[in-house]
């Protein structure tokens, strides 16, 4: 019990307002590593193999993937390395026109995501889905046609996905606190589904505003700085 309390204290000290920052921290670290080192295909495959091995080890060592808790910090780097470099490999294949002509429609990736989320959790299911189902879903998403209304929706969701992930938790916590405070409910009372849907609809335009007026100008400045 004492160890659990210490873990909670460390976790809230590291990420006090936004637990998803746990994974964003590692993603930014891996992005920085990728941006500063020239990677050959051999090194990419080696990193994928080693990082997946450590995903399996840390999953079974900690009895599950965990999340942003302090004892699970050691699992963050291999997960971020694996997912990021799988994305790099898929992008290379897509750029070479090897896989991007295979179309199953826009709803197949969505169905796959729902199927994955419906599978009862186990360590074996988790380590099995990571190297196969997740890259497959990403690949099928990239292979959809690049015109039409569906493509516009996909591009919009792709642009706002990062800020949505970054701000959704604080937005929910603030809304939950306000709702429970006003109605006199216990602070831990979950929000009703209707309010959650309204909150999700409100997060999308906020995320797009962040992309349009903060993220994109910052990216341009960083690219200009790097190309000098």
Structure description:
It contains 9 helices and no strands. Residues 1-7 have low confidence and may be disordered. By secondary structure, the chain is mostly helical. α5 (107-118) packs antiparallel against α7 (133-142). It is 75% helix and 0% strand. The N and C termini lie far apart (54 Å).
What does the secondary structure layout of this molecule look like, with pairings?
Layout: H1 2-14, H2 21-36, H3 41-61, H4 73-95, H5 107-118, H6 123-129, H7 133-142, H8 149-183, H9 193-226
Strand and helix order: HHHHHHHHH
General form: globular
Question: Main β-sheet: number of strands, strand sense, barrel status?
Answer: none
- The gyration radius over C-alpha positions equals 20 Å
Proportion in helices: over 70%
Strand content: under 5%
- State the secondary-structure class: mainly alpha
Q: How many helix segments? A: 9
Average per-residue pLDDT, rounded, comes to: 78
Total beta strands = 0
The poorly predicted ranges are: 1-7
Give a brief rundown of this model.
The chain has helices at 2-14, 21-36, 41-61, 73-95, 107-118, 123-129, 133-142, 149-183, 193-226. The protein has 228 residues and is mainly alpha-helical.
Essential attributes:
mainly alpha; 75% helix; 228 residues
